[in-house]
Design a protein that fits this description.
Elements (H helix, E strand, L loop, with lengths): L36 E12 L9 E4 L2 E4 L5 E10 L3 E6 L6 E5 L6 E8 L6 E4 L4 E4 L5 E4 L4 E2 L9 E9 L6 H4 L5 E3 L5 E15 L5 E4 L5 E6 L2 H4 L5 E8 L4 E11 L2 E6 L3 E9 L1 E9 L10 E6 L4 E6 L5 E7 L4 E6 L5 E8 L5 E2 L3 E2 L5 E13 L8 E7 L2 E7 L3 E10 L5 E7 L4 E2 L3 E3 L5 E8 L1 E2 L3 E6 L2 E5 L2 E5 L8 E7 L2 E7 L6 E3 L3 E6 L10 E4 L3 E8 L3 E12 L4 E11 L3
Parallel strand pairs: 1-7, 13-18, 21-27, 21-28, 29-36
Antiparallel strand pairs: 1-4, 2-3, 2-5, 5-6, 8-12, 9-10, 10-16, 11-15, 12-14, 13-14, 14-15, 14-20, 16-19, 17-18, 17-20, 18-19, 21-24, 22-23, 22-25, 25-26, 29-32, 30-31, 30-33, 33-35, 34-37, 38-39, 38-48, 40-41, 41-42, 42-44, 43-46, 44-45, 45-47, 46-47, 47-48
Length: about 575
Amino acid sequence: MKNQILYLCLLLLCIFSCRDEINEFTTTIDESPPLVLVETRVMGRVVDDAGDPVSNASVRLGSHTILSGADGFFEFDELAFQKSGDVVSADVPGFFKGVSQSSFQAAGQSFVEVRMLAKGEPDIVASTTDASIVKPNGMEISIPANSIVDSNGNRYEGNVMVFSKWIDPTDENIGGIMPGSLIALDQNNKDVVLATYGMLALELEGDGGELLSLAEGSRAEASIPIPDELIMDAPDEMPLWEYDLEEGKWFEEGKCTKKGSSYNFPVSGTGYWNCDIPLESICLSMQVFNEDLSFAPFVKVVVEDLTDNFIYWGYTDMNGFLCGSVPQSAPLKLTILDHCDNVIYMEEIGVFDDDTALEDIILETNLEEFLFNVKGTLSNCIQTDVPNGHLGVRYPGTLQIFPFSDGVFDVNLGLICTSFPEVEFTLYSNSEPSATLMETVFVFEDVDLGALQSCEDLEDSFVFEVDGSNLFASPTQYYLRSNQVTDWMVLEGLSGSGKITIELRDYQGVGVYNENAFCDIVGGALEPRFEELEGSSPSIQVEVTVDDGTFIEGNFSGILDNELGEEKSISGTFKVRKAP
């Protein structure tokens, strides 16, 4: 399975104690070992699977609950948490529960990002008959008759809304999409780390939106596809794991069995299920300093397993510290990046057989913290109405989208980089295919863009038609999936929380793609709000007509299947921005 599986384990999620701490606020109780609490601040951000902010999410940490703001940010201020780390969860209608974790240091501050997976449209089945759900991506779920109960354990009779998602193990964002980290407890109560071959998210609701579950002793049968690039090395059998939302880790609950190009397994309840190979783990800890020996806070740390291209990543805390589980006896490479995607440190750190604290890492530069606000208003140029829309913010390596309503935007941004980057702001209307001129800021200061009008034609966009309804999405971005052995190109058009994606799994530049071409639409802020649609070759044909280093242009057409199994015709054009 070399160079095939993208396996991510958030380094912030340290289950073991890797380093002696000072100034701890300790509570001793009659347990062995005692529970150690630290007073700390925890801040973070709730985003959807496209990386866009999710507002009004109920964020829970321990016994404390707050709501995320309009920009998705939240902060727990100076409360006592477990030193080993606590589960940070987020709930909001329309999404599966988002789960992440953070390890906490004494009198410190930690950052955590909670990514939420959109539920999409449900499959509706009757509780009194056997139900079989087949998704266009190859995922299947079979639910036996009379196996559904309500929250009180009483048999439920009526329609059941089945929300389900397959989580692709080769998705480069899987570390954010999946719940928590890939830390698990096997049947022998031994801590291990996991190499995933795919996950399933499942929720059941009644006609009135009430939560339902499978009755005790009942089992649904699930089948998830094995990506083409993994199938040759995929074992015939591996353990099945269920995620425990309270414990914040995976527990071994059965077996996944390979059948053709899928893994089949039994499901005893709602939540997250995972087919994984367990690996021996050790705890790796480190502390990162700037050149002037001050702490390097909230920088991204990536640890790669050079044997199998597994990748582990996380953020340092305010003291530049992190620790987490990595595979035992594997050659590792450490890379540190600032928020502007600059590589500021890289080193092969060797093979470790036991828990290890690295020597302090001292960067050859100093990081700076840039906190600033951008605000203003937007109206449409021709109709002079006040639109809903979104703010696009670009800086090196990053495109962020911030939806707003009633023409008013007010967003707080924070960057930790070696220097203040060139930041570009563009406002987009959701009701008209238009935008403002791009505003570029080179100086670190608050930005008041004033009263703007969306009068400009879209420089980069997807413009398309689905069953006679016209849609558009802008701005755009592209990337190559770095964990793939082929040139796997991803083209995206964004619109608030909605997006359209075209994937070309063997990109060769200008030409026609009848094979390995895939298209997906997530409704979100796209108007009209179609339920999620997806299609693949040979149902989709993509033609790339221009790739000049600045833009990738072309057209596409074909058939998409929606969540209800209906076929929708689609055709359109794209002009995707490739360079700043």
